[in-house]
Amino acid sequence: KITFFGAAKTVTGSCYGIHANTTNILIDCGIFQGTRDNEKRNVDPFPFRPSEIHYVLLTHAHLDHSGLIPKLVRDGFTGRILATPATVDLCGVMLLDSAHIQERDAAWENKRRMRAGKPPVSPLYTIQEAAGSLAYFQGIRYDETQELGDGIRVRFRDAGHILGSAIVELWVRDGTVEKKLVFSGDLGQKNLPLVKDATVIEEADYIFIESTY
Fold first, then answer.
1. Counting C-beta atoms within 10 Å of the first and last residue's C-beta, which end of the chain has fewer, N or C?
2. How far apart are the two ends of the chain, measured CA to CA in Å?
3. How confident is the model at residue 7, as a pLDDT?
4. How far apart are CA 167 and CA 206, in angstroms?
5. If you ran DSSP here, which 8-state letter would residue 143 be given?
6. Does the CA dihedral 125-98-93-185 come out positive or negative?
7. Please, what is the Cα angle at 29 between 86 and 93, to 5 degrees?
8. Which pTM value belongs to this model?
9. Which of 174, 150, 162 is nearest to 58 (CA)?
């Protein structure tokens, strides 16, 4: 069962939910950006129970794909976040920076609310919460197949978008039948100076594409 929790009818907030056999997986857990109405969605409760998610498979470090991970952990997630080693390193910088912005914006808003006699607001998440979420990350190198158990395995392929960006190949077995799902993440252009061209994926049963790219 596949559920689209974000990046549907909007560009940001990428998040696919997968229920396979007895395992619950998220592909990305991104923050909503852009319009004020979009950003208001970040404070809404998750449309699933974070404590019931076993894995997050992270395509890359950009915040519209990773930016709600500290909130996910704070709200009960205790599983594993799998990503390429470069994505793990970049998230160690970007999630802390995002938390700094959240704290700064909440402090600015609370000054305004104090003058208006309104109750204060809390940041979406704190620097401490972002730092704590990093303990759940595990680096998986490109082209290595990782068994997740329950008839599920995953492999990251180079997406050529930013350092560490990945296409996610996911195999799910149900009895004697195995299906291959591919999640593009954000795809890069060819012949860029600092990243390789995206890997060509030659076969899949289902493909989920970030259509912006």
1. N
2. 25
3. 86
4. 13
5. T
6. positive
7. 40
8. 0.94
9. 162
Tell which residue, 180, 192, 188, 148, has the closest CA to residue 59. Answer: 188
Residue 95, SS3? helix
CA atoms within 13 A on the CB side of 161: 20
Amino acid at site 70: P
pLDDT at 211: 76
CA proximity to 166, closest of 138, 198, 134, 191: 198
Sheet with 2-6: list strands edge to edge.
Answer: 2-6, 15-20, 23-27, 55-57, 80-83, 137-139
Contact (CB, 8 A) for 29 and 15: yes
Q: Is 122 exposed, middle or buried (0-12, 13-18, 19+ CB in 10 A)?
A: exposed
- Residue 99 tokens read as 């938390």
135: its two tokens = 């303990």
Distance CA 152, CA 116 (A): 53
Laid out side by side, the sheet with 152-158 consists of 145-149, 152-158, 166-174, 177-183, 206-208
pLDDT in tens, 125-170: 999 999 999 999 999 999 999 999 999 999 999 999 999 999 999 9
